[in-house]
Structure formats: C-alpha cells, structure tokens
Amino acid sequence: MNQENRTPVHVSIIMDGNGRWAKARGKERIYGHFEGVESVRACTEASVEEGVKYLSLYAFSEENWNRPEDEVVGLMSLMAKCMANELPTFMKNGVKFVVLGNLDRLDAELHAEINRCMELTSANDRLTLILFLSYSGKWDIHQAAKRMVADALASPEAAEKILNSGLSVFDEYLVTAGIPDPDLIIRTSGETRLSNYLLWQAAYSEFLFVDTLWPDFRKPEFRQALKAYASRDRRYGKVK
Ligand code: IPE
Ligand code: IPE
Ligand code: MG
C-alpha cells in the first residue's frame, strides 16, 4: 500500500453477474460475457491511470468447468480472441499480462495464445494484469503442498528449507509466487462469498461487495472502489 495517497498496490476482482446482465435484456448468457470484456478494458485502463501496480481478475474457476458445454466453449474462444485483440494495447500501456491457474485443462490453442501474450508482454512494468483461469484457491494450496512434498523427497536441502523457513516458503509454491497479496478484493453482482478464490492470499485483504453487475462496472465504479479502500483502517491484528 502506498501510504501517501492510499492507492492499493494490488486490486483483485471477482467479476460476477454477466449471465444476469444478459438475462435482464432477454439475451443469451454469452452476451453478458462479451459486454464484460469492456469492463475488463475499463478497469485495466483505470488501474494504469490510478497507479495500481497489480490488477487481478477471477475469470473462470475450476468449478466453472461444470457449466453447460456451449457456455464453456464460448468463454474460452472469447478469451483467446480478446488476448490477441488486446496485445497492441498492452504493449502501448506497458501492461504485463499473466495467466494463472490449472492451465493443463485448457485446450492447446488457447494455451499457446496465453504463452505468446505472456512472453511478448513480459518486460512491461507499468501494470501487471493477472487473469485467473481454471483457478481455485483449494486447488492452488493443494498443488503447492504436493510440489513441496515432491521437492522434500527429492532433496534433503529442499526438505530442510521447507521445514525451517516458516510461512514464507509456502508463498513460493503458490501460483502467485512473487505477487503481493491483494490489498482489495471486489466482488460484483451482490454475492457475498469468495467462491474458492484466493483463499490463502486473501488473509488480510479488504473486501468490497457491490451490487453492480460486472458488465456495468466501469471506470467510475472502479474509482469509487479505490475511494472506499482509501478510507479503510488496516490493523493486521494490532492495536492502533
Ligand atoms: C461471471 O458471471 C463470469 C464467470 C463466472 C465466468 P456469471 O456467468 O457467473 O454471471 P451470473 O452470476 O450467472 O449472473
Ligand atoms: C465466481 O463466480 C467465479 C468467477 C467470477 C470466475 P461464480 O458465478 O462461478 O460463483 P458462484 O457459483 O455464484 O459461487
Ligand atoms: Mg456468477
């Protein structure tokens, strides 16, 4: 957190309500996802303008694989298309693009597009835009624990480090290694749950639940959220 202007370093958003937005207009759910892309653009731009360093977005959960096949296929092709479309804007605005999650479940074409975008934007440093795709918090903790056990079994030095380094070593095994924990987590659409999002990383995040549906969440709503965050008093268990 930047103490001077109280701008959060890392803002994270559970982008929810696309289906309801479309339904309210008598349209298929996928139209809500299309319109939601405009909100991603707006919040990315606003983050650059406001000096937020990390913007992370929950785009597709491990549980979302259980949705009807046409919606899953529609969402995946929308993501592949958007990544290709947005690349010039990422380069222009200094946006480093990162995708985190259980990417082995994605089809090869989308995986290749993700790798291409990540590679081409890897030197950008104005904003890191993280897309959580096929992600869940329990999956993340589980994969971290499994890799720790594998490393410990493979080398006594690794075992020694894992046993004696305290909590920070666990951070290194999560897919978010090297990324600061979110200062602010926003969820749109009036739902007040985490839906298996950053369970470990959200330990001391500030939460903001808003009724706005994701396709209606644009720059003014984002700025309003930063304002709400600025008035929070983060105590981390201490007495002030
Ligand atoms: C969020 O909108 C996008 C994803 C979870 C992929 P939803 O699709 O969950 O929209 P609602 O919650 O059904 O309105
Ligand atoms: C959470 O939204 C996941 C994402 C925004 C990607 P969902 O719409 O899937 O969550 P639930 O089912 O309402 O908890
Ligand atoms: Mg939803």
Could you characterize the architecture of this molecule?
The chain contains eight helices and six strands. The radius of gyration is 18 Å and the shape is globular. The model has no long low-confidence stretch (mean pLDDT 97). It has 240 residues and is an alpha/beta fold. Helix 5 (137-154) crosses helix 6. 47% of the residues lie in helices and 15% in strands. Bound molecules: 3-methylbut-3-enyl trihydrogen diphosphate (IPE) (2 copies) and magnesium ion. One 3-methylbut-3-enyl trihydrogen diphosphate binds at residues 14-16, 58-61, 64, 191, 193, 195.
**Ligand inventory:** 3-methylbut-3-enyl trihydrogen diphosphate, magnesium ion
The count of strands amounts to 6
As laid out across the biggest beta sheet, the strand order is 3-4-2-1-5-6
Instruction: Summarize the helix and strand pattern as letters.
Output: EHHEHEHEHHHEEH
Q: Compute the average pLDDT.
A: 97
* Uncertain spans: none
Radius of gyration: 18 Å
Task: Give a short overview.
With 240 residues, the chain is of the alpha/beta class.
List the helices and strands and how they pair.
Elements (H helix, E strand, L loop, with lengths): L9 E5 L3 H7 L4 H22 L3 E8 L7 H25 L1 E6 L7 H13 L6 E9 L1 H18 L1 H9 L3 H6 L10 E4 L18 E4 L9 H12 L10
Helix pairs in contact: 1-2, 2-3, 3-4, 5-6
The chain binds 3-methylbut-3-enyl trihydrogen diphosphate (2 copies) and magnesium ion (MG).
